[in-house]
Amino acid sequence: MHHYIRRGIIELYSFIWLPQITPSKQPIDVVIPIISKDLKILPLCLQGIYRNVRNKIRDIYIVAPHNEEIIQFCQEQNLLFIDEVSVLGFSPHDLNLIIRSADGRVGNRSGWLFQQFLKLSGNIGTCDHYLCIDADHILIRPLTFLDEQNRPVFYLSKEHHEAYYDNIERLMGYRINPLLSHVAHKMLFSHKDIDLLHTNIEKRFKNKKWWEAIIDCYDKSNFAGFSEFELYGDFVTRKRHRPWKDLSMPYSKIEDFESLVKKYSYRYNSVTFPEYFNE
User: Fold this and answer.
1) What pLDDT score was predicted for residue 275?
2) Total domain count for the chain?
């Protein structure tokens, strides 16, 4: 039932005119974690950022494994390359997060979780706020992430996954059951709020780093047992919310940026080309 209510809310807002949010005068950074396969879709993601993020952008950081093709791309596109190992002092291989589901499937989710830790690290960028966005996510309508009162604008989807809320309850000591979700492929982070989140977690789990506590609270039978966006979005108290409509499609539907805007921006805020659609 909640699924239909969530979908109904998003659909209702898509027909309501919402005034454009005035952007802050403060600049923001952009952080995009990638691996080499993302270079295929990354140019479209960047076009969406340049065209549709209404906040002033100081720098765009590409966080990735040390890879000559990625480094060359960053140099050609005037992007700042960050070796992912330097962010937290370890690599995805050090996590060794092996999932064994109830139906007998086994898989390594270390890379998937590591990218979330990169976003939560607070170790990238020089601005007070940094926008993290998934490389396969293309913005096709203008939007603001930091408003004129320097409040983050969080965009909400109809996604709902109980394992995220179970993890937050174990990690933070309280239960959330939101009608709409903060999981929408992107989020604006504040270095100040990230530091506070780390402090709160490490006070609850003495002698552990915040990321170690997240792993300890992870249900090792669930392939998607944690969401950085859900954790942080709920944690921040001073914020604005807007509904978000995204269209997910397979790689076969990839077109040039202008074609995507022309075809889909009348109804959607973004298009996404998730890898699992092609598996």
Assistant:
1) 84
2) 1
